[in-house]
Amino acid sequence: MDNRRDTVDPDTSSEVTNDAGMPASELDFWARQHPWHPRIAPWFVYMLVLAIALHARDWQSWTYVPIKVIQTGAVLYLVWRWRSLVPEIRLHFHWSVIPVSLALVAGWIGLHDQTIRLFPTLEDGQPTFFQTLHGENQTLFWLAAVAHLAAMCTAVPIVEETFNRSVLLRSFNDSERTQTGLLQWLCDMPLIGDWMVRTEAGSQARRQKPAFTDQFETTPLGQLSVLGVTASTLLFMLVHATSDWPGAILCGITWCVLLSRTAHLGLGPVIWSHALVNVLLWIYVVTREAWPFL
């Protein structure tokens, strides 16, 4: 992997061009300074705008559609602009995507239903946003549902697979180096960092090169470890509803294994599988009116 960093002075970075042939900005300069930056920033942008969309739709339901369009467009723009900095984002397909995705959809639905049976309190019982729209305004419902689908089969698979299956899976590959990285983080924190750097463990950690960056740069795409699979799957699980945690765990582990078998194709197969699962779940929702899944 080519994790090149420009040595352009940030004060003059606006005078050069980036790898996309566009004038470089301070944002581009920042993206080049660390391999995590162009891989994590689109995910955080997506999550930030998602929070805005969820709050805005509680105020006025019509706001959901334009905000989702802005969200999807902004994320895809960042992915495209920094595409040369994230060479593992390739859209190569692999035949195993289809059977894996079909199995994951069945597993997600079955595990969700079983979880609700075992823990009925997880089911809110209140009409969901899409359920309410479906009953009150069919036009707005379909606009919102299509905007949601567009995000779930384009921006979401790219940013989540890049974050989870590239950054986390590789940066948390080794338990000893991960422990060093956590100590380095503590040393950089306000207040506690002043104390940590005076301890023997903190002092030793500070003398070593950045552990998470080192793990990312030395761990090949698709190389699995118990810690890496756990970290990437845990984060993926936490951004879903509690009733969907078993399905998210199943998907997270399966996509790690799929990536390990198809890493020569980059993230393409897991992106395709993630997108296909989302499309099939969307079809299941709108045809069966299974609103909790949307």
Keywords:
294 residues, mainly alpha, disordered N terminus
Architecture overview:
By secondary structure, the chain is mainly alpha-helical. The chain contains 14 helices and no strands. α7 crosses α11, α12 (226-238) crosses α13 (245-262) and α13 (245-262) runs antiparallel to α14. The longest helix has 23 residues, at 37-59. Residues 1-16 have low confidence and may be disordered.
Total of DSSP H or I helical runs spanning 4+ residues? 14
- Percent of residues in β-strands: under 5%
Task: Using the alpha-carbon principal axes, give the shape.
Answer: globular
* N-to-C series of helices and strands: HHHHHHHHHHHHHH
Structural class: mainly alpha
Q: How is the secondary structure organized here?
A:
Layout lengths: L25 H7 L4 H23 L4 H18 L15 H22 L10 H8 L1 H16 L1 H17 L3 H14 L3 H5 L3 H8 L3 H8 L7 H13 L6 H18 L5 H21 L6
Structure summarized in a few sentences:
The chain is built from 14 helices and no strands.
